Amino acid sequence: MRKPNLRKMIGVGLLLTPIIVVCVYFVDLPVALFVKSRLYANAGWSEMTSDLPDLLSMVVLFSMLVSLLVYLVRTRKGLYDDTTAFFKLVLWISPSSYLVKTLLKMVFARVNTRHWLCEHSLYGFYWFQRESGFEGFPSGHMLVIGALLAAAWRFYPRTRALCLATATLLGIALVATNYHFVSDVIAGAYLGLLVEAVAFTFLIRDPLQPAAGNS
């Protein structure tokens, strides 16, 4: 399995930066207002999406526990194959991606979409602001779930269509429910791919072999 090219990934990030900036200044607000005026004009949609539970921490915890269990069982049996490597990778990228999103949200402290819709004068980034409502950038759901989907994409090529469809639908849902601006979603998706690529580079040997001293 070929290692990811981190220099190329960083280059992609540099190319995405101006796109994200354009979205911040020219795309995010019109899209958020469009969603509010068109989709939220529907009483059913408004009620259904007004208080969606945030299950991201549960996704992280569940994926960590399952991955740890499978990894321990397989390594104790001496099974060092792609499946073992996959669960090892997931075991690390679940908490690390969650940590990255938490730290970046604190750094950027961007007003989230729903908070801005209640008070338009608050639009922008409030660096290192820790108050509620200033945690919009990047999208944590896209970052964490994007990293997990990237791992599945790498190890299980047959799932790639499903991974792409899931990521696309998640991004659309986050914007269509006014949980995030478009730029939040783009940045979160890229950072999820980057976290997975970095973790794979430093954690997974090809082919996977037991560490020295292990049987």
Report on the structure:
It is a single chain. This protein is an all-alpha fold and 215 residues long. It has a single domain, classed as Vanadium-containing Chloroperoxidase, domain 1 (Up-down Bundle), CATH 1.20.144. It contains eight helices and no strands. Helix 4 crosses helix 8. The longest helix has 34 residues. It is globular, with a radius of gyration of 19 Å.
How do the helices and strands line up, and which of them pair or pack?
Elements: H1 6-39, H2 43-49, H3 56-76, H4 82-108, H5 113-118, H6 140-155, H7 160-176, H8 182-203
Quickly list its features:
Vanadium-containing Chloroperoxidase, domain 1; globular
Short description:
With 215 residues, the chain is mainly α. 70% of the residues lie in helices and 0% in strands. Mean pLDDT is 92; it is low at 209-215.
Unreliable sequence segments: 209-215
Q: What proportion of the residues form beta strands (DSSP E)?
A: under 5%
Instruction: State the domain count.
Output: 1
CATH architecture: Up-down Bundle
Instruction: Just give the CATH class.
Output: Mainly Alpha
